[in-house]
Amino acid sequence: MCSHNVFISYARDDFEVIKRIIRALDHQGLSCWVDQDNIRWGESFPSALHNAIESSQYIIFCISENYTKSSWARKEVELALAISQDMEGSNRPHLLPLLLEDIPDHLKSLPFLQTLQYRVYNGDPTRLAVAIAHLGLTPTRETGREWANSSPLSYSFEEILRYESWLPLDRRRAIATCLLDILPDLKSHRKNHIRELNALWKSLPIMTDRRNPAWVRVNTTHSVEGNRLTIGFKNTTCEYRVTDPLKLGCFNCGYYAGAQFRKATIAQLMEQLRRGFAHAFNLGRRFDVVEFLSDGSFLSDKEMDDEAKIRIFESLASMPYIKRVLVESTPEHIYSQREEVPALLEVLRKDQILEIGVGFETADDFVRKTCINKGFLMAHFERAVTHLANINLSYDNQCTVVAYLLVKPAFLSVGEAIDDLIYSLRYLSELSKRLGIRIVPKLEPAAIADGTVLSYLHRLSDNANLFRYNPVNYWMILEILTRAFLDPSCHPAYNEIRIGAREDMDDIIKVPAVYRRDGRFDQFDYVLYDAIQRYNSHRDIFQVYAVIRETYPRGIKHLLSPNSSLGAWTRSELNESDVANSRNDSFEVSAIHSLLTNPDNESILEEAASSANLDSQFLRKIYGCLDILEGYVTSRSASIQSRFKEILQNSESRISSAELEKFQYIVSECFDNSELDLFEIRMIDAKLESDDLLRLFFEATNFRSGRSHVLWSEVPIESNEHGV
Hints:
This protein is α/β, with parallel strands linked by helices and 724 residues long. An eight-stranded mixed β-sheet has the order 6-7-8-9-10-11-12-14. Helix 20 (474-486) packs parallel to helix 22 (525-538), helix 22 (525-538) packs antiparallel against helix 23 and helix 23 (541-551) packs across helix 27. The chain starts with 5 loop residues before the first strand and ends in an 8-residue tail after the last strand.
């Protein structure tokens, strides 16, 4: 092992800044070679310089006005470039230009700045040192910490608090304390759920049949067709969850509910792909985007064989209507398997875009590690994105990064979670401009899936714990969209935003929705949810508001009143924190309220309303149907619920396809009879959430507009004698 990791090239006049960087690197267990400290008395300076550069893993050029005026600094640059070109493979030192200040543009034209990706020093030596430590360097001494070699987080109180965060120290202390308190119970909670799943799989052949995908969905997206086909492969489990010392993986992830924990064969994976496409075509839904949302990392060789990846991509390349393909990966599989992405791009057609989805979740390392338990830090993400940006130079920008952002992680209040999303959108905007690569933020509203930290915290009684988790309210998604729209520092990320669908995950206890205080769906949920999902297709914030305003008959005035679902949410969630001692001063007036009450926006809203009118008519009919199903129309709801109960009394342990057909007929009757010839209802699934609550999942297709709407509804029923 060499005696130092990093060679620092700098100007003498900048040494005070350099000393702070050296101390921060030393704190990470990394040592630096600097001429003032490392040249021995009587040693040849050129010889010492050559040996130091040759034996370093990384060479940092600390560039400033002073540096560009130093003739000796120029010689160090020339020598480092020459040595790097002469060396081969992993022995070659990596060259890292670091701009210490905002130098003039003409100095940025230096030849090596044109060929090397540079970083701007923000004045924080600790953050810079952490980023350098996570580039894959080997520590030169024991630090007592696990940061330097990218090992998993050790869950000690002191270790947790070392992660960078915009949250104040008292909030971080409270979150760290709570996490350490619940970890033993959380492990048992996850273990028990997996045991229940294994028992269920053994009793149901369809669950163990690896010719069927784990899940298939068709949802909205921004494309010519406006739809995406999502397939979750039934395959081996997530590699990170296995290697995580806690054996928990990401705290909020419930995707393992559809995994098999055994690797599927290539033939089985191809059959799953075929059946996924067959499902979409049977629905009659046109799509031009395919997404693989499997449990884990598509790029990992331990989870997906190279031959399987190529076979899948060859199939997609042969389909002229498929224009975009998304796979998911953790950052380390992007930069450690450096040829993986180029190999996939070689298979795709030139008119097809490859998207790499990364569970980035947040631009805050403390939140990512402590509230979500991701297996990487900001530095890993930046390294992966930099690698993809370099690939794009050879593939005509054919590769795009999709950064998933979790809406409302565990332990954060609503106000904090909104702040965190805006903070993250600003960061992604800056990173996209700095690296010259398209980064698409995808907001993923947190669903409460069984076996996760969210389900554990949700089941706590109101006064049992400071951090009881409440499901995401969809007004929160609109608030984030609106704040990003009004905040120029969030652009261009705002212009690329996508929103995940709540149907994208199975085994959900509570989906993101507009909930009432009694825990049931609010009457207004579907209108808001559908309007936000349609944002994926048109990306026009005013169309979202137009659909809401046109569909809701009582208008904006009522919508903004304290008694409306928006008014209640704004008052209870934004102005009154759901976490003690958390301040939400910045949310005294919501962005939604500001946009709706701004007279300058009135004409824009009116124009958007005219284009939304046709679909809003059908939305009002859907709204009326859900009112009947969920018990808000006394004259009709009781008889409808009685008919559901009668069917369930004769049911076995699972709801059969014949019973689904009966449910479908009942739901159709809840629509206006005069319009029966203009739309179709198709029941997708039904599940008893408890003895007195039936969840329906169905699709309504409007023949006039040609649009389909996927609906959730929870129907209150009395318990039946079989306890189905």
